[in-house]
Amino acid sequence: MSSLVKTSPFFLYFTKIPWVFPCQNTLRASLQTYSCRSIVFSKNILKYSCNSYFPIHTVRYLCNVASAATSSVHASSTPSSNKGSYKLRKKLMKKDSRDAPENVLRYKLDMCSKYGQVVKALELYDEARSDGVQLILHHYNVLLYLCSSPSLLETSGANNLLSVVLSRGLEIYQQMITDKVSPNEATFTSLARIAGAMDDPEMAFSLVKQMEDYHIAPRLRSYGPALFGFCRKLMPEGAYEVDSHMLASAVEPEEPELSALLKLSSDVKRADKVYELLHRLRRTVRQVSEPTAKVIEDWFNSESASEVGKKHWDVDKVREGIVRRGGGWHGEGWLGSGKWRLVRTGIDDNGVCHSCAQKLVCIDIDPKETEDFASSLTKLANQRVKDNFGKFRVWLEKHGPFDAVIDGANVGIENDHFSFIQLKRAVYRMRELSPSKKMPLIILHTRRVTEGPARYPNNMKLIEIWKNCGALYATPYTSNDDWYWLYAAVRFKCLLLTNDEMRDHLFQLLGNTFFPQWKEKHQVRWSISRNGLKLHMPPPYSIVIQESENGSLHIPTTTGDDIETPKQWLCVTRPTNTSKSGFE
Ligand SMILES: [Zn+2]
């Protein structure tokens, strides 16, 4: 642990407390607490009697008495009356369990969590402590979560309470340790947030490191308070150490983390780190959001950026680097000299930049990654769709392969109505695009081929024709047809016609590393113009941060990302010596 951490005023909270939690002792301690209360507060005994304080036969007796009093009809000891009294006993026991003080406290704390009532939660905690209620992990985690959410206090206009609440969070944690309640990931993440809100990133980082001692795997959220704290306080060494720790723990930073590191590196003039982080953004995020684009613009507009770069370089080596890295990036560092020129621009249909006229490249997707993606999709679809999916796969083997798949429900929608005419146009346009003029595969829900417009004679005829030539598959009532069209398009490595941006829950299961790349290469979108249906083919270039062999960069932003508004790119160029040759 770094000496920096040891100087933290809160260090003792997290290091001097023994971390041994034998469960039996905890249980014994809790029973002792209740036994004492049984003698002193006799009223409470009655209230909490039917669960833990009386032997089970006493409980049965009490419940039978209650049963007899309320059920004169079943007074005789017939099997049905036994059954009835058993049910009543269960009901009473359930009610008593609900009324148990720890369960009442749990419910009340959950309500505080739901409505963000941190002050009320602290009052409940104090009350429970003075009443001797035994708190478990859930109680502590809710309390720590509330104490670690200072935004709740800010919105309630109680800024002066902030420091009090944060300190109380630490005090509650200390009590948790005294009570020998074992922490989990949520506990540590809340504590790291408390440390973060106290502007103590060293403490937040030390907590993440401690998670390993308890075999708790840190998550991306666990690192946030430390990483953002170091970045905010312009402490590059701390931030880079957190970054290395994340990589070593197989936690992949996402855009907010990479963007914060990029801003820090830019602010402290670490040009090498800025270069490295742009590459990491390229690899994991591919296209940047507006806040990150602003950070990148600030860097290229800075004096430090205009000062870095090789005036001369080995052209062959740079070209070789681009080939070795699969295209779109050479990785040889900053090239060129002088001020950078920044323009927000667009890219035409052929991949040529509107501003500098450079042509962007198309980076092939890795065949191995495609295969892995296809098998994980098959596994997920089989789990979600179950038996029906097996039938679909058999059907595909019989009628495939296809050059294109159509998401019929999406393509047939015209002004909120389903139009077979529109779908038919799309089907025959896609057939024209096929090298062998093969019919595309149309996926439609059974409802669409049996109900509503499907009953009109012309449409019935059309459905019949498509079915007979093995181009139409009707998905069962109980299944989500998204699985079918996506699976078929991935299975046949073919085009997929849909305007569905594939961002909902189902598609999130596929992850955000490979799926966006697959989509970019295979999705055909459509629009309706005065000239009828227009198809928008996948771009002949890759929508990813690209570095060209003269050192210029093209950075796609997420601004404008549909058919009407073309994607906005950041074109970054600088004057270069065109007579460059094989030396630095
Ligand atoms: Zn350009």
From TrEMBL:
GO MF, any single term: ribonuclease P activity
Database matches in InterPro entries: PROP1-like_PPR_dom, PRORP_C, TPR-like_helical_dom_sf
Transmembrane segments: none
Broad class of enzyme this protein falls into: hydrolase
Main location: mitochondrion
Enzymatic reactions: Endonucleolytic cleavage of RNA, removing 5'-extranucleotides from tRNA precursor
GO terms classed as biological process: tRNA 5'-leader removal
Subcellular location: Mitochondrion
Domain PROP1-like PPR: 94-307
GO cellular component: mitochondrion
Cofactor(s) listed in the protein's UniProt record: Mg(2+)
Alphabetized UniProt keyword annotations: Hydrolase, Magnesium, Metal-binding, Mitochondrion, Nuclease, Repeat, Transit peptide, tRNA processing, Zinc
Keyword Transcription regulation on entry: no
Domain PRORP: 347-571
Keyword set includes Aminoacyl-tRNA synthetase: no
Enzyme Commission number: 3.1.26.5
Sequence similarity: Belongs to the PPR family. P subfamily.
Protein name: ribonuclease P
Species this chain originates from: Cucumis melo
